[in-house]
């Protein structure tokens, strides 16, 4: 796939199934994540990879979090442990913020966010689909505590990857002049 084609046609797949990436492909995907731009080389990234039966750990964590969340009803509690099984591979991407005089936490979260998109794009090139999700569990105190997050750390997302089911849909390109201002020639 041509690089510009990839950038202009990046898209997500919500419905994902087996097979997921093999070990060599997963290695490439994760290395693409490690190419995220990173101010002062802090490497503020942490990837926690759940695949196969490992997804049960994330399912159990989501379920415990749901049970302890007074805002969630029975339906949400029942759904919680099914979420990680929506794809053969789920990468939890965390921004692990390091104190730095020139690199505020925001920049470190952005760097981790870039790694998510890089990994999604690598998955696309390898023939897989992916979707970046957050949801209530990304900010849930119990989930944060299970990942031993510090006060400034964030779960920037859960990247689901697998074989796309159904047709892929690339959203229409937004109108450029609504988002871009051109100064000078
Ligand atoms: C930080 C972040 C969190 C997101 N969380 C969710 C989510 O929890 N559920 C969801 O369906 N889409 C979520 N999305 C949006 C999808 O990843 C996707 O971008 C969107 O469905 C548009 O589709 P497209 O990527 O094909 O343009 C999130 C996107 C970002 C950047």
From TrEMBL:
Its EC number(s): 1.-.-.-
Segments passing through the bilayer: none
Nitroreductase domain boundaries: 9-162
Pfam families documented for this protein: Nitroreductase
Keywords: Flavoprotein, FMN, NAD, NADP, Oxidoreductase
Keyword Ribonucleoprotein found: no
Taxonomic superkingdom: Bacteria
Swiss-Prot/TrEMBL cofactor(s): FMN
Entry annotated with the keyword NADP: yes
Record family assignment: Belongs to the nitroreductase family.
UniProt name for this protein: Putative NAD(P)H nitroreductase
């Amino acid at each position: 796939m041509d690089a510009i084609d990839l950038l202009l046609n990046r898209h997500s797949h919500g419905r994902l199934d087996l097979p997921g990436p093999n070990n060599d492909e997963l290695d490439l995907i994760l290395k693409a994540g490690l190419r995220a731009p990173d101010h002062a080389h802090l490497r503020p990234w942490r990837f926690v990879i759940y695949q196969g039966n490992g997804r049960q750990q994330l399912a159990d964590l989501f379920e415990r979090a749901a049970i302890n969340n007074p805002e969630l009803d029975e339906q949400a509690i029942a759904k919680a442990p099914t979420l990680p099984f929506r794809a053969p591979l789920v990468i939890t991407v965390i921004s692990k913020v390091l104190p730095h005089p020139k690199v505020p936490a925001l920049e470190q979260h952005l760097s981790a966010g870039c790694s998510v998109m890089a990994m999604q794009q690598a998955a696309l090139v390898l023939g897989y689909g992916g979707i970046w999700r957050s949801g209530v569990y990304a900010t849930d105190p119990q989930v944060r505590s299970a990942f031993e997050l510090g006060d400034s750390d964030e779960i920037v997302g859960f990247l689901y990857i697998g074989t796309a089911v159904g047709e892929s849909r690339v959203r229409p390109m937004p109108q450029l002049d609504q988002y871009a201002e051109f100064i000078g020639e």
